[in-house]
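Input record (Table S2, row 259):
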Amino acid sequence: MALVQKEVRDNVGIITLDNPKKLNALSREMVDDIISAFDDFEAQRIPVIILKASEGMKVWSAGHDVKELPRKMRDPLSYYDSLERLLRTVEKYFGPVIAVVHGSVWGGACDLTMTCDMVVADDTASFAMTPVKMGVPYNLTGILHFMNRLPINIAKEMFFTASPLPAKKAAEIGIINHLVPEEDLLKVAMDIAKTVMSRSQLSVEVIKEQFRILSKAFPINPADFERVQGLRRKVYDSHDYEEAITAFLEKRPPCFNGK
Ligand code: YXS
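Output record ((2S)-sulfonatepropionyl-CoA complex):
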């Protein structure tokens, strides 16, 4: 059974995350379903996509499926990891992708909303970036998503505390484009989509691609890249990384020892 629902309404593609029992955790299976929906819409040249969760969920998505994170000694966010494949799919889609958020957003799902082109949310939305809770050495492309979207001090507070950012604050700092009542969420996103579709699609498409290219135009020398990869390896090879995953699965707080 598909873990996402998809429909086309007034030529807008709507993808609904629909795995409530797993709190829409971004498992490989769910990510494959989302990517296949994107591929279908691309084949139909659907110019705008809305990415939402099924109605009434208090959690939009609980982030990367912790049960699928490697337990140790392997990069949890390598290039071909399911979350990374999903983020690139959103970035490379030829038209705008609008996240419609009701409920809390966690970890990799927070990166997913940051990778969408716009966010429409209601006051139940919150955004938490959780690598430091999970002992995960996040990755350069993910951190760049936040640096491109937020003042760096806000991005650092999100990463260093893993505390959920409430909707009002998220709107003030620009994570959310429009903070609206729950009953208006889809209508506001559809209105944005219709306005975009009334403009030159050739221009929209090339401008989106320029934003993508420029947002990644970030020089880093090979030695620094390799040093960062070495530092990240020390983290995912550590006791703390393994302890965080184990503690989560055992439903207890982790006991970090910095080793
Ligand atoms: O006990 P069962 O088997 O029913 O399962 C529980 C949870 O274990 C499960 N679940 C998850 N399973 C896999 N991956 C997840 N991310 C995940 N989150 C939850 O769903 C069942 C119901 O969860 P429960 O009982 O905790 O629900 P709740 O309503 O009390 O609390 C909802 C949350 C979202 C506040 C709570 O589930 C939670 O804090 N989940 C973890 C959120 C999080 O830290 N996600 C980050 C995942 S790691 C990630 O995204 C990146 C690698 S990183 O960290 O680097 O950003």
